[in-house]
Amino acid sequence: MDQVNKFHAVYLAAGYGSRISKLTNDPKCLLQINSESLLERSFRLWKELGIKDVTLVLGYKESMIRNVAEKYKDDFNIRYQLNEDFEKQGNTFSLLLGVKELAQPCLIFDADLIYDKEVLEDFMNQGTNSQILIGPSSLEDIECAKTLIDQKGFARMTVDKRAVTSEELAKYDFAGEAIGILKFSKEDTVKLCKKTEEFLSHPKNLNLNWEHMLNQFLLEEDVGIYKLTRGRSIEIDNPEDFKRAVEIFGK
């Protein structure tokens, strides 16, 4: 079997995306660039790369996303999971819905990401070992998910929406930005599911972003990194990000 065909794509698209609300009230994955939504672009690239199995985790305006996804039902095995109370049960619960009962290696995608085919293709060509996809960034970028690695090159934490502390830098090295695509082996997908269930068993964690759970997982399991060598990607969090994405990908 082709290496890429082994992977199950998990697409996390349940959230509202309040920071983009000045631009659209539709789900972020339906933002269009070159008359193609982010979701449609992902389906196109998945097909080109031979991915067949897809789980869409939906919540906000889920019927709009289903209507788009149904166009691809002949080319993909699409599984829908619904985070009905997505405002109270955040994206950690969405992640659990996505990976639960999977029996194969998985790719996890943030739904607000636009990326070139080369980005995903190169990541997949690294095999099924668990890895975080890393792009260039700087420690001064407070907004990005800064990835810190140990001396062996394994990711041990991501730092999002805040500065990295001097204590963290004394312990780990800065690798770059986690751009929103992660890969887990079959074995680690099972472990990730168990860790997520354990994390969510504490009520105070229910509405925390899944990066908090991931940091606990990274301390227990060896997850590598893969640094981009070609291709482009942009996470669209706000209207300024969308404008930049149109400028770069709209050519």
Topology:
Blueprint: E1 8-13, E2 32-33, E3 36-37, H1 38-48, E4 53-58, H2 62-69, E5 77-82, H3 91-99, E6 106-110, E7 113-115, H4 117-124, E8 131-135, E9 146-149, E10 155-159, H5 166-171, E11 173-184, H6 186-200, H7 210-220, E12 224-227, E13 233-235, H8 239-249
Parallel strand pairs: 1-4, 1-6, 4-5, 8-12
Antiparallel strand pairs: 2-3, 6-11, 7-13, 8-11, 9-10, 9-11
Description:
The chain has 251 residues and is α/β, with parallel strands linked by helices. The protein has one domain (4-249): Spore Coat Polysaccharide Biosynthesis Protein SpsA, Chain A, CATH 3.90.550. It is built from 8 helices and 13 strands. Helix 3 runs antiparallel to helix 6 (186-200) and helix 6 (186-200) crosses helix 7 (210-220). The longest helix has 15 residues, at 186-200.
What letter string, H or E per element, gives the SSE order?
Answer: EEEHEHEHEEHEEEHEHHEEH
CATH class: Alpha Beta
Radius of gyration: 17 Å
Query: What percentage of residues falls in helices of 4 or more residues?
Result: 25-40%
Q: Roughly what fraction of the amino acids lie in strands?
A: 25-35%
> What's the main sheet like?
9 strands, mixed
Q: How far is it from the N-terminal to the C-terminal residue, by CA?
A: 35 Å
Number of strands: 13
The CATH topology comes to Spore Coat Polysaccharide Biosynthesis Protein SpsA, Chain A
Calculate the mean pLDDT score and round it: 94
Shape: globular
Helical run tally: 8
CATH H level, superfamily name = Spore Coat Polysaccharide Biosynthesis Protein SpsA, Chain A
Structural class: alpha/beta
The CATH architecture designation is Alpha-Beta Complex
Number of domains: 1
Show unreliable segments.
Answer: none
